[in-house]
Structure formats: structure tokens, C-alpha cells
Write a structure and sequence with these properties.
93 residues; alpha+beta; five-stranded antiparallel beta sheet; 41% strand; elongated
Length: 93
């Protein structure tokens, strides 16, 4: 398991529990991509996985998770509200 995977799993689970999530289209071929980088003993596989959702008040929820071994860990997680709505709170009521 990578550094950010537990956070990503928990964030998606919370969003699914509290919002009516629908898939947000990710271009074909970008759902998951892998490549071998480096040379010799420094060669590693880098895997990028993309997730996309939308809801009635959020136009896009997007995550890109880059896993490249111990030297490279990236999580880009963004939420864009629909501009005509007030940002919803994910806090418990």
C-alpha cells in the first residue's frame, strides 16, 4: 500500500456515503497508465490512476494518484462546485 492510498480510499468512501455520486468521464486510456522510468538499478515502474465523479452540487471531483515506489508518491485531489450553488459542507450535521 502506498502513502496516500488510505486517504484516497477514505475520502472516496465518505463522498459516496454523503453525496449522490455519478461517474465523471475520464478520457479512454487515462484511467490507469504505467511506465518504467530510470536506468539500471534505479529503474522503477510508475503507475498513475485517475478517478472522476460528479454530483448534483459538485460538477467535478477528480483524483490522480501517482505511485512510483519510495521515491515518488503524489496525490492530486480536487473538488469543483457548480458555480451557481453554495459550497456544500462535508461536516457531519
Amino acid at each position: 500500500m502506498t502513502l496516500y492510498q488510505p486517504f484516497l480510499d477514505e475520502a472516496i468512501a465518505i463522498l459516496r456515503d454523503r453525496l449522490d455520486l455519478q461517474p465523471y468521464p475520464i478520457p479512454v486510456g487515462f484511467e490507469s497508465k504505467s511506465a518504467r522510468v530510470g536506468k539500471g538499478k534505479h529503474e522503477e515502474e510508475v503507475l498513475t490512476t485517475s478517478y472522476g465523479y460528479q454530483s448534483p452540487k459538485l460538477r467535478q471531483i477528480r483524483a490522480a494518484h501517482v505511485q512510483g515506489g519510495g521515491a515518488l508518491q503524489v496525490l492530486n485531489f480536487v473538488i469543483f462546485p457548480i458555480s451557481t450553488t453554495i459550497c456544500p459542507s462535508l461536516e457531519p450535521t
